[in-house]
Every structure is written in structure tokens, then in C-alpha cells.
Design a protein that fits this description.
Elements (H helix, E strand, L loop, with lengths): L1 H42 L5 H51 L11 H51 L6 H29 L7 E4 H11 L1 H7 L2 E6 L3 E4 L1 H18 E12 L3 E10 L18 H6 L7 H11 L2 E7 L3 E9 L3
Parallel strand pairs: 2-4
Antiparallel strand pairs: 1-3, 4-5, 5-7, 6-7
Helix pairs in contact: 1-2, 1-3, 2-3, 3-4, 4-9, 5-7, 7-9
């Protein structure tokens, strides 16, 4: 909005300057011409009195008409050149609206118009990316729901026709498919909640060591079943954070590690620096190509091996984690060589 106001103000000032310049030139040329013509008719034609006045009025009328016509023509050409980039912008926006086609916008001598063109192009690119993200999201959502729904429909149809007999194992399998869809929908609702309610974060002073200890206690049994060696080295610090939100962050990261782990050791280190507090979760997991390490924080993203080995998750846990951390003004990143994974969470201290 401030850019548009600045542009409108600049455009208005340029039009006013152009009008003022044309007005001054018109008055100057008309006055100079009238003065020179008056001298000519007095000295050369020796007119005076009523004849002189009539001659000067006639000349003034013609010179005024000529200058006004020339001024209008010059003003039209100047405004046309001034507004040409704006008309092109209007056509570009119309093309984008109708065909979602992003066209190149030519440069302009005016810095304000260049800035406006740049912002228009950024806006179109943002809309295009948002639409592509939405399409990918709907496609992935359909993919995630198709398998459990197909299984449910198939077994229920078979039970209805009597071709399959109900057994506790079958009912447990159907329940698992139903619970999988429920978890998926709950996670989608949770992700949407954090994307629109980051302004409602309630921060309190929380001990990171204590909060992490409570989270590990919650996952004590599955951690002991999977890992032979669990090493926790935490330098405590009191941070102003939302306790429940950070508990969920820890839970999501640990659950992701449990789902994808292939090794026997799990290490957590926490350290306080002058600028931040860092937590690093390290383990050996399924292969992640180093060049795709950022994509694991996208909705529904799974590496190829995960698609066949993973059965319970929906691919939303780390996306939710990053969104929550964003609302906490914190970051998460993955450092990996392919198998050795290090999830690093960092809270920057307020200056």
C-alpha cells in the first residue's frame, strides 16, 4: 500500500510539473510574441489607437489558439509516454487473471514505475506459487486418503457380500485405516491452526531441560524398545516460549525419528550461546538425499524409501513443527550425509 501511495504521489507530482511547465512556456511565448508583434506593427506599419488594439487582439487570439493547440498535443504525447508502462501493467494483470500467464514487463525510465512493475511481477509469482502449492496439496491429500479408503471400501464390500468373514485381526486392520485418516485430518487441522493463529502465542519462562525431560518420559517405552544407547547432554536455559507449543515440537521430532530410525543410538545435545539456544537431535535413519533435506519440512513429503516403509504417518509432523517454530521466531534445519541425521532447533535471544 505504501508503494502505491508513493507511486501515485510521484505520478501526480510529475503531471503537475508537466502542466506547470507547459503553462509557463505558453504564457512566456504568448507574451514575448505579443510584445514583438506590437513593436513590429508600431514601427513598421505605424498603427496606433483603435487599429493597433484591433490588430493586437487578433494576433493574440491566433497565437493563443496555436499555443494552446500545440500545448494540448505536447501534453497528450507526454502523458501517453508517461502512462504507457501503466497500460502495459494493466494488460499484464488482465492476461494473468484470464490465463495465469506471467509476462515480462519492460523497463521504464521512471524508478517509481520500475518499482511498481517489480512489485506487480512479485505479486503474480507469489499467486502462481500459492496456486501450485494448493494443487500439490490437494493432489497429495487425495493420494493419502485414497489407500485407506480403498482398503475400507474393499473389505466392507467383501463383508457385506459374505466373501470375507469378520475376524479380530480384520477389524483391527480396518480400525487402523480409520485411525490413520483421523490422524491425517487432525494434523491438517492442527497445521491450519498454527498458520492462522501465530499471533495468539502465550509465552512463559520455561526450563528447556525440564521440558525436554518431560517429553522423553512421555516417549520412554518406544525409545527403549528401539534404541540401545540414548545419550542426553543438555545445558539448561530459561526461555520465554509457549510451553505446550514447544512440547509438541519435541514430540513431533522424536516421533519422526522413531518412524524413520534404522540405527541403535540416539543423542540429544543442548547448548547455550551468546545469541541463541540450540537443540540437536541425532540418529541414524532412512536415506535422505542431502540435496533434498529441506523438502522433508514440506507437507506430505516423503523420500522414496519412506513411501514403502512408513505405514502410520501422514508426512505432516515436520511441516507442523516448522510452522510452530516460525510462530516462536525459531528455526529448524536438518544436517545429513544421507544416513546420519541431525535435526537442529535454534531459538534466537531477543536483543
Amino acid at each position: 500500500m505504501s508503494v502505491l501511495k508513493s507511486f501515485a504521489s510521484s505520478l501526480l507530482s510529475r503531471v503537475l510539473a508537466l502542466n506547470t511547465l507547459l503553462l509557463v512556456l505558453t504564457v512566456f511565448i504568448a507574451g514575448l510574441s505579443l510584445t514583438q508583434y506590437a513593436c513590429y506593427v508600431v514601427t513598421e506599419q505605424h498603427l496606433s489607437g483603435t487599429s493597433l488594439n484591433s490588430k493586437l487582439y487578433t494576433f493574440f487570439f491566433y497565437i493563443s489558439f496555436a499555443l494552446i493547440s500545440f500545448g494540448i498535443f505536447l501534453h497528450f504525447l507526454s502523458l501517453r509516454r508517461l502512462l504507457r508502462p501503466i497500460r502495459f501493467l494493466s494488460q499484464s494483470v488482465l492476461q494473468f487473471k484470464e490465463r495465469r500467464k506471467i509476462v515480462s514487463i519492460p523497463g521504464s525510465a521512471s524508478q517509481d514505475i520500475q518499482l511498481l512493475s517489480h512489485n506487480f511481477r512479485d505479486m503474480m509469482l507469489t499467486i502462481k506459487e500459492a496456486e501450485q502449492t494448493q494443487e500439490e496439496f490437494l493432489r497429495d491429500l487425495a493420494h493419502e486418503l485414497r489407500t485407506p479408503l480403498t482398503n475400507l471400501n474393499g473389505y466392507l464390500e467383501a463383508l457385506k457380500q459374505g466373501t470375507v468373514l469378520g475376524t479380530p485381526d480384520l477389524y483391527a486392520s480396518l480400525l487402523e485405516e480409520s485411525q490413520r485418516m483421523t490422524r491425517l485430518l487432525n494434523q491438517l487441522n492442527e497445521l491450519e491452526h498454527w498458520e492462522r493463529s501465530s499471533s495468539h502465542i502465550i509465552s512463559n519462562s520455561v526450563s528447556m531441560a525440564r521440558l525436554l525431560s518431560e517429553t522423553l518420559l512421555h516417549y520412554e517405552l518406544p525409545l527403549q524398545q528401539i534404541f540401545q544407547d540414548i545419550a542426553v547432554s543438555i545445558e539448561d536455559a530459561e526461555l520465554s516460549i509457549d510451553r505446550d507449543a514447544v512440547f509438541q515440537i519435541f514430540a513431533n521430532v522424536i516421533q519422526n525419528i522413531l518412524d524413520y530410525n534404522t540405527g541403535s543410538t540416539f543423542q540429544i545435545t543442548g547448548k547455550k550461546t551468546d545469541l541463541s539456544y540450540q537443540l540437536i537431535f541425532s540418529h541414524t535413519g532412512q536415506y535422505i538425499a542431502p540435496e533434498e533435506k529441506e523438502r522433508i519440512f514440506e507437507r506430505f513429503y516423503r523420500c522414496d524409501t519412506s513411501r514403502t516403509l512408513r505405514t502410520t504417518g501422514a508426512g505432516l509432523g515436520l511441516a507442523i513443527t516448522r510452522r510452530i517454530l516460525h510462530s516462536q521466531h525459531a528455526t529448524i534445519q536438518l544436517e545429513t550425509d544421507g544416513y546420519q541425521h541431525h535435526f537442529q532447533i535454534e531459538w534466537l535471544f531477543s536483543s
